[in-house]
């Protein structure tokens, strides 16, 4: 069964460092998303991406965040200068149609900022 | 501003009985709803969806009911199994499946 894969599964970084989280969405999917879940809190939308551009982003997705689809398969989330409050589980998701259809989530990348 | 609420943080049910998980929303523009199950250290897994043109959708042991006037939906699991023990998230979207807003989740424990 096709799945969304994410790397790394866990990354520990120092405050102020840059982090790149990687995702390989399901191959025929066209819509890509990043969500995050701070420990003990709800899953929060960060950004959606379609046709090589951001289609929507939340207030959380400020100038420190960026996304990219550098090739035909990877979808990355970059945090330029990490803060303590960026510590969370980051989930990548994809789906194949704009309307209806469920999001398929990866298993997440845990980011710990010290 | 919680647009999607799951007021029960946890629920315990005996194996074989019905589990009912509730979700309320405030945004009347929401027209597509999903339920996800999440195990620790894993990503959310899709369970079942419903669009606002329906009031019920059934898939095996899982049934979702939507009451648009009350802005309320519920997930019924019958019969409940120990493997159903997980955190269940309700998610809602406007524009039929664009970006989703998640509720805070309900932890279901099914006791053998």
Tell me how many strands of chain A there are: 11
Termini of chain B, distance in Å? 37 Å
Mean pLDDT across all amino acids of chain A: 91
Our Rg estimate of chain B from Cα atoms comes to 13 Å
Largest sheet of chain A: 7 strands, mixed
Outline the structure in words.
In chain A, 0% of the residues lie in helices and 50% in strands. Chain A has strands at residues 5-7, 10-13, 19-24, 31-37, 43-50, 53-57, 65-68, 75-79, 88-95, 104-105, 109-113. Chain A is globular. In chain A, the strands form two sheets. In chain A, strands 2, 4, 5, 6, 9, 10 and 11 form a seven-stranded mixed β-sheet that branches. Chain A has a four-stranded antiparallel β-sheet with strand order 1-3-8-7, with no helix packed on it. Chain B has strands at residues 4-5, 10-14, 19-25, 32-38, 45-51, 56-59, 62-67, 72-77, 86-93, 100-102, 106-111. In chain B, strand 9 (86-93) and strand 10 form a beta hairpin. The A-B interface holds A 4, 6, 33, 35, 41-45, 48, 56, 91, 93, 95, 97-108 and B 32, 34, 36, 41-46, 49, 51, 89, 91, 95-105.
Write the topology of this structure:
The complex is a heterodimer of chains A (114) and B (112).
Chain A: E1 5-7, E2 10-13, E3 19-24, E4 31-37, E5 43-50, E6 53-57, E7 65-68, E8 75-79, E9 88-95, E10 104-105, E11 109-113
Parallel strand pairs in A: 2-11
Antiparallel strand pairs in A: 1-3, 3-8, 4-5, 4-9, 5-6, 7-8, 9-10, 9-11
Chain B: E1 4-5, E2 10-14, E3 19-25, E4 32-38, E5 45-51, E6 56-59, E7 62-67, E8 72-77, E9 86-93, E10 100-102, E11 106-111
Parallel strand pairs in B: 2-11
Antiparallel strand pairs in B: 1-3, 3-8, 4-5, 4-9, 6-7, 7-8, 9-10, 9-11
In brief, what are we looking at here?
The complex is a heterodimer of chains A (114) and B (112). With 114 residues, chain A is mostly beta strands.
